[in-house]
Amino acid sequence: MTAIAAEHARSWLLASGAYPETFAYLALTGPDAVILDLEDGVPANDKADARRSVATFLDHTGAQNIWIRVNAIGTTEWEHDIVELSRIGTFGGVMLSKCESPEQIELTARRLGGRVPMIALVESALGVERAFEIATTPSTVRLAFGIGDFRRDTGAAPTPDALAYARSRLVVASRAAGIAAPIDGPTLAENRQPLIEDLQVARAIGMTGKLCLTDSQISDINRELSPSPREVQWAQELVDASGTDGAPIRDGSDLPRLAQARRILELTDIFATEQAANSR
Question: pLDDT tens digits, residue range 109-124?
Fold first, then answer.
């Protein structure tokens, strides 16, 4: 697994905590981050065992890029999740299911002993409406879009147009709050083309990460959410032509374009460095 920081992570592999025999393998499949799921991915009767399995695994192999999705606040399972996780040493952070308020983030972080990095999984109309307040909570490092539950809550169709408002709200809220761009929900289709199309939609709207349920999607996610060769070439040529101080400036669009170019080159260096490290 890569060592890319959470704010830059593209592929987020969501895996059930009910199958501990797969945990060690997951890190070898190339995701930027793994999320061990204690919520919907675990049958009700298996949740206690899943919690113990996740805790045991992290006690032995604690890693900054392994996160845990906990159950929603207001459920008995959330309480049990927090008690178990409070005993664990090193892990990346917590994804809070069905997050609808900043108070839910604050309570979860406080119960875990302080400013634990949190990803707020927004899955309802209320969560979308409160996206900015959730994003400005100190422990929130990113927002994520829970497409399935959002559609169930609102009756929205699974089309880009129907989901564009919610995605845009999360993007704008994240930017206004000064945190990294949001993580899009998973693509459930088994063939590649719907995944590629969903990635193009997410990227166009300003999202920079994506949840996935299978390791077969990781390489496509990492590629599509990284600067393309054409973008890198454009960025390098613009930076070279502008010099270190941004001159010559011809019109008001030059400085924003130069900032975009530098951001592209920065991300290219981050992803290339990690790829090189992982190939050794």
Answer: 999 988 789 999 999 9
